[in-house]
Design goal:
The complex is a heterodimer of chains A (about 90) and B (about 140). By secondary structure, chain A is mostly helical. Chain A contains 3 helices and no strands. Chain B is elongated. The chains are: A mainly alpha (about 90), B alpha+beta (about 140).
Chain lengths: ~90, ~140
């Protein structure tokens, strides 16, 4: 596999995830909760599959997009219902 | 809900873009798995006994006549030669238009086996068109 292929796929994944990270509204990981951490782990595991050409880019987009969509939707729903995403300090 | 809609639209736009590049740009290895990756994936599924999944990697013409049992029988001599499989690697030999050939090497405890696979591009993805015959 040529380095050019890997560069193109890495750029593709980077730009795609950068856009979604911006859309999610998180500028830092300081306010992240446990579900966000789990989603970040799952998405992080998908990158190498795309880099080494094991999955098609469309599959990567669908998988990552769905996870981001669920993450943002649950956060929006929780915020709309007035549910706190963090635990009160005792 | 506005941001959820925005994310859904962005996903749809990106998918349309990927489809445009793959279909319109005749992409055969950048945004789709290249022939050697398809061949290696197929070989890994065979060596791990996931023959039902391996069927999805076959071209339509081959998938019509193969089933998990025929795949298991076909590749049984391979396992007899290699023993416990430790490594699976594939490299592209040639690619011309919608056809490609890849060489697969399977290394096991008792030896290694090399065979070639023919691949064809179906629905913008590389599929295994010709299977090896082991004796």
């Amino acid at each position: 596999m040529s380095p050019l292929h890997i560069i193109v796929r890495a750029l593709f994944a980077y730009v795609f995830v950068l856009i979604f990270t911006r859309l999610s509204g998180h500028r830092t990981v300081r306010g992240a909760d446990a579900p966000s951490f789990v989603v970040a782990l799952i998405i992080g595991d998908m990158f190498d599959d795309l880099f080494w050409g094991e999955v098609a880019a469309s599959q990567f987009v669908v998988a990552v997009g769905t996870l981001f969509l669920l993450e943002i939707w649950t956060k929006s729903a929780a915020a709309g219902a007035g549910v706190r995403a963090w635990q009160r300090q005792r | 809900m506005k941001v959820v809609t925005t994310v859904a639209i962005v996903v749809a736009v990106w998918l349309a873009g990927v489809w445009g590049v793959v279909a319109g740009g005749y992409d055969r290895g950048f945004l789709v798995p290249p022939p050697e990756a398809a061949a290696e994936s197929f070989a890994r599924q065979i060596t791990t006994g996931r023959n039902e999944l391996a069927l999805h990697a076959l071209a339509t013409s081959v998938a019509r006549v193969e089933n998990p049992e025929t795949l298991r029988t076909r590749f049984a001599p391979l396992f007899a030669a290699t023993g416990k499989v430790n490594r699976v690697e594939a490299e592209q030999l040639s690619m011309f238009q919608d056809h490609a050939r890849a060489r697969v090497e399977i290394v096991g405890d008792d030896g290694h086996v090399t065979f070639e696979l023919g691949l064809i591009r179906e629905s913008h993805l590389w599929k295994v068109e010709t299977l090896p015959a082991f004796r």
